[in-house]
Design a protein that fits this description.
Order of helices and strands: HHEEHHHHHHHHHHHHHHHHH
Shape: globular
Number of strands: 2
Largest sheet: 2 strands, antiparallel
Length: about 475
Amino acid sequence: MNWNAVLPELILSLGILTVFVLELFLERKHYKFLSVFAFVFVVIAGYSIFFVRYPASVFFGGFSVDLLTLIGKLFVLAVTGLVLLSSYDYFSKKNSAYGELPYLYLIATLGLMVMLSSDNLAIIFTGLELASITMYILVGLFRREYLSKEGAFKYLVIGTTGTSMYALGSALVYGSTGSLKISPIQGENTLFALGVLLIISALALKVSSVPFHFWTPDAYEGAPTPTTAYLSTVPKIAMYFLFVKLTIGMFSSFPDWKYIVMVLAVLSMFYGNIVAYAQKSVKRLLAYSSIAHAGYFLTALTTVDKHMFTALLFYVFVYALATLGAFSVLSVLEKREGWTHHFLDFKGLGKDSPVLAIMLSFFLFALIGIPPAAIFLGKLGIFFGLMKAEYLFLGILFAVASLISAGYYLKVIVYMFLQEGSERFGRTEVSAGEAFTILISAFLVVFFGLYPEVVISYLLRAFS
């Protein structure tokens, strides 16, 4: 067996077992140590990716690695590591420092990495559910918070629906092709088409696309904010890498797949952006922003084109960095006594905590897509890809939806800098991990905006 192909997963599994055993013997006061220790294993697993020889295949062809898969795993591990660093002080201050949290983040990441390398629908299901079940638990781990339990329950119930759709879709694909392996088919096949429809619907639920989005606002609002940062970034990266793989290897065999994706994309873009204006909580506003971004991302899956896919995956990664930065700032603010994320709480923040207000404003401008933030290049790449594919109408809708989104992001900035605050909150404490996460996220968003070829060149090579 070629153990080199599963080297990152082995290291991460070792990290999970080590943290699990240590947590049994250490008291809660050592929670910070466990988080940093888990972060070390994430760094080692990420470093090991550079030593994986590709292409390679193990487990009877069900698990494979190539350059695209390794890039996806590196992105996933990078953002997971930053979440771990930014989370330990928050959970300690909120008296919710469960020793299980560090290895639960690792377990979810392990499931997503297994899913990325899977060439078999059954193994994808295993990885996806390992991550999903762990995330249901993570959402509910907020001590004495009703919204946390409510969000976790809704996420569980709706997520189980997605699981059922994926399982049934996979069964129909197997019934029509005789195999669970990801591979294109020739000719028309109604059973295969129905299976593809169900699988697309299941994955759309996982990425918060309309009309499968209902779990998103409640789960994002109820979850501990570092967990919200994880939910809105790491699974999204993995899911779109999987979406690209399935589009190339399976969905494109069904001629009308593009129309299903177009409908999901347009509904998500406009519903997410319009409903975001009605929100009174900035945390829920960012949840609807993620729904709108799901629409932007899905537009890139309407055609099989390596440049379009490259723009999509670059966009998803830099979006994850900006979103992580924004939620990290919200985590810092939430440690203040009485903070609720209501818009009124943000009044006068620019005067009270100018550095945090400036950083949050930067991330919001980045999410709008204002240069030099790298998200601008991701949006531009998808827009030109739509023009190249002669989807003029979809490209115009993409641009209009992006313009609509600017208003609610700017609303937050107006409250922070142009409204007078009541100064009823205590002083803001920023841990070293939170400061590092916020600064490195901001730096990378600008760096990749100025030097996008650092990422894009490898993505293009992966599709060659």
